[in-house]
Amino acid sequence: MDRNNIKLRIREILALKGMTNKALADKMQVSPQYVSNILNGSALSLNALYKIADALDVVFGDLFVSSFTPDSPFENEFGAVVKCRRGTFTASNMNELQDIVNLLSNRSNSATELMKATLERMLRFPNGKDMALISELMANLSRCMNPVEWREYYKNTLADLLPANFQVDYRYLSTFMTRDDILAFERSLL
Question: What does the CA dihedral 87, 91, 3, 74 come to, rounded to 10 degrees?
């Protein structure tokens, strides 16, 4: 969606509610400059959009619609792209966007559970050739789960299953992970 539509709708809602930019900044607990940047077309995260909707006391989808009428339902005008560590997702209506938000906020989704089951099975029935894959599964799980859940899972489940001489295959991980990702993963194992 064109960023100008978002900017115009936020300004329109402010005008309808008789709010100033400063009042919005106060409700969001941010600086007036931050609100000014938003209104002037700065890139917005999904989290920032939710905060704006909450501060304006409107439904999230209202931010994306500049002229909603019964003859032009906003599903036909709506488009969203959500980029995150787990990939890029597109939505053409509010229901699809809500599904994406649910998927991204649900840390215990079936893919995570499948990775856990696979990792645990590989550790229970080890094969000397699997250490690179075990390292990869552990790294991916650490990125899919929130840090607290990952540490709990690692300490309560994986620590007991890992062989005493297990070493993460960092050389393999470096083929698809950035140095920062590897450092973050390494810290999560402490």
Answer: -170
Longest Cα pair distance anywhere in the chain, in angstroms?
68
What pLDDT is stored for residue 121 in this prediction?
Answer: 87
Alpha-carbon span 162 to 120, nearest angstrom: 9
Residues β-bridged to residue 87: 84
More confident residue, 3 or 158: 158
Q: Long-range contacts: 84-90, Cβ < 8 Å, 24+?
A: 85/143, 86/144
Instruction: Determine if the pTM surpasses 0.85.
Output: no
Q: CB neighbours of 126 closer than 8 A, spacing ≥ 6? A: 163
**Are the C-beta atoms of 63 and 7 separated by less than 8 Å?**
no
Using H for helix, E for strand and C for coil, what is the string for 73-129?
CHHHCCCEEEEECCEEEEECCHHHHHHHHHHHHCCCCHHHHHHHHHHHHHHHCCCHH
